[in-house]
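U., I forgot to send this yesterday:
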Amino acid sequence: MNATSSRASAKPLPRLARPVLAAGAVIALAAGLSGCKSESAPYVAAPQPVRAASVTLSAATDARSYTGTIKPRYESDLGFRVSGKIVERLVNIGDRVTPGMTLARLDATDYRLSLESAEAELKAAQSSLKQADADEERYAALNKKTWVSDASYDQKKAAADEARGRAERANRALALAKNQLAYTDLTATEAGVITALPVEVGQVVGAGQLIAHVARLDELEAVVSIPESRIDGDREVTATVTLWADAGRTYEAKLREISPQADPATRTYQARYALPKPDAAITLGKTATVHLASQGTGLRAALPLAAVFKDQGQPSVWLIDEAHGHVVKKSVEVSAWTETSAIISGGLATGQKIVAAGVHKLDAGIPVRIIEVAP
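Result:
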């Protein structure tokens, strides 16, 4: 009876208690594993690969550039020296011309009539002069024999002098008529290229009116505008010129003149830089950039733009500590920014290495490994 009652009192455990025991076993196992891990060596992150740039300080130079156009040094506005109606135009814009080449013609009918009239007037004056000279000689001989009075001789002499004057005036009038007839042909005075033709055939023009604009090609210049803050410092600076259409070539240039007064709209001064002997690549109207470089003070280094970041408004770089294998934040002084570089004027030394890219993914003390060094 006692045995039966003891078996009856040993009741089985409820079903809900079994998962609780299993969970406790898992927790105990995890605690044991955690204790084993804490006893092992601490985790060390692998060095982060970075692309580095080597710092090279050199003598500072102040470089600046101005964009302008290629223009001729000499330009001529050609026009007829007489008025009339244009009956022929022999050139077009862009044509090359040579000295003596005819560009346009006027209707020369009236000027031919004037020439013929001057020729007839000269013949009449010469005939009168011949008669007056004969009368003077005759009266001079009679006066010697006292057959005519001195007064009569003086009258014939005065008439002869007047005839000579008429003949001289007629001769000058004929020359003037010939010149005016020649002026009905407009000819080029210098070799160059036609850049403007503001008239057409049939148009009546006045003396001196613009007919053709000719630009000489023997001397070309790069014309730029310089701000008034730089006008004094740029007078004695070495200059070079590059063309937008051919940026691979550089041409030496020399400052020829600077306008004495500023443009009223832009407040800049026009400067003309003479180029060497004409080159096939240098043509009128091309976009040109004048580069000026002068010796500055101190030492500077050019770093990639991606290497510089701002920390609380201060330009900074990541300096690589090669001895300890990590990076250190270093503040720098930036004197100028270009399209591809930051010009550093202080904070670094030659030979130091800085992180050239990915600077925003780094923190102080992070171990790094240099995979490439850019110049």
